[in-house]
Amino acid sequence: MSDIIQLLPDHVANQIAAGEVVQRPASVVKELLENAIDADATSIKLLIKDAGKALIQVIDNGKGMSETDARLCFERHATSKIRTAQDLFNIETKGFRGEALASIAAIAHVELKTKPAQQELGTHIKIEGTEVVSQELISTPKGTSIAVKNLFYNIPARRNFLKSNQVETRHIVDEFQRVALVHPDIEFSMYHNENEVYRLNDTNLRQRIVAILGKKTNEKLVPINEETEVLGLTGFVSKPEFSKKKRGEQFFFVNNRFIKSPYLHHAIVSAFDGLLASGFHPSYFLYLTVPTQSIDINIHPTKTEVKFDNEKILYAIIRSTVKHGLGQYNVAPALDFNRDATMDVPYDFKEKQLKSAPTVTVDRSFNPFKTEQQKDIKFPYKREKSQQWESLYVDIEAPKTTIKNIEVESELINNSLFKEEQSISKTHQIHKKYIVSAIKSGIIFINQNLAHQRILYEEYLEQITVNDTASQQLLFPLEINFNNDDILLIKEIQSDIESTGFLFDKIENESLVVKGIPIAISESQVTIVLEQLLDDIKNEIPETSFSQLDVMAKSLAKSLAIKNGSVLSKEEQEDLVERLFLCKEPNHAPNGKPTFISMEINEIDKRFGL
After folding, report:
1. N or C: which end of the chain has fewer CB within 10 A?
2. Would residue 70 count as lying in a domain?
3. pTM for this one?
4. Which tens digit of pLDDT belongs to each residue from 335-368?
5. Which domain holds residue 567?
């Protein structure tokens, strides 16, 4: 039998590694930004074109690389951060595996320009699919500029799986924000298709958060600070009244590295227990500092998941610290059942000495059992009392009338006059969630939320695409604050959003003014509906314009549909059932879930053994 196992060529192995490291353009952005930070850069510029599919370029003013290092950095397992296996447990830098640049170079056209400060000339290298096309000396500024062009050019199947430009740009912005939030002392700028998206100056942490998420964020932040032997915790959480329906602004950083941890997230949510309305989520920006030996950050290719040695201790510290921070700034009420607030001594009287003993005056002649003599009270006006009131009724005779022959038109008195006949109801509501109705073949159970979503979805879709959507003008225009990303997205799809009934007066950098809203929503729902609409568009929108309108109709239907837990009257129940079965596709909600299930009478009989 011949041998069938063989070593893979380097370019194939690099492409396989690229599948783990480079999942989308945002993965390249993350790796390049982290390399620039590890090079001690104080200014970093990010340029992207076509959501990173055509170009991703990072320019920094860091230490730069020598000619040998510039050539060696594209080899697999080449790194400057690890020398021994023990170094894996003391990692304080961003990248460390030595696979990022090799993986990127295997699936794109890469151009590198770099120069250390002490050298006069720098190095210029061009690589296409792991093959070095050229290497030469050039005149270039101190630092490194690396451009990644035509990502996935040699793996067309992988390129076809990328989402729309808006979705991919959203992921790139997310990675940019995560890096910028953890390094406020570094200048960052970002350009997309030559349009400036961000320009962030070096500043402190609070101002960096405000610069990224908008000026209105400043009033929402509650500072958190705690130092223990096992954990250092700093950052901010949002006030409960500024919580949102979506989970967007939630950031955990461990040793200056963004992570995702559902376990620690639960600690934050439990600290807000009793302060948030149902369905709302808090925003937080928390920075954890732990000993490098107590975590393992190499358990996931993207390094966004870490393993802690003492998760339960961290959970307790984070929960209590956040709860204390909310109470310290009077966001949450302080609970102390042993203290009577009425007995508190004011600070002004704490150290005061009494000048003299207080005196009490007593009326010793007072007798509570002595009857008080009635005093004559004289009024200025006295009403004369009439003594001849009987004369008013003299010579008045009562009329004599017989009522035997008087006929009075009357109804037959019975119970129907006082109690309406109760007709048999066609529908019944169960657990404030399902509507039960009888049909010829058996019974059906209708989910009121999903059924109403189907009804509203078809109505909105028809209004947007066929009819002119009616809009109600607001007496006082409503100003709503969004971050720069959301404002850019609103500008791109403004005409489509206005086709749903919204009318905008002006759209600025961090806010927009709404002067008209769809008839179906109230003014108090505008912010929630727009936030949900933007969130759905970011995550679900394909390229075509019709699909945008379809997503908008689905989003509006989801936001405005009757929620499970709402009590419906008999008339509302019957109206919902009738409108559902007038829909073109009553069987399924817009998200594909069934709106109702049916049980035939034979199936019910079998349950009873009949």
Report:
1. N
2. yes
3. 0.66
4. 554 555 555 555 555 566 666 666 777 777 777 7
5. 430-597
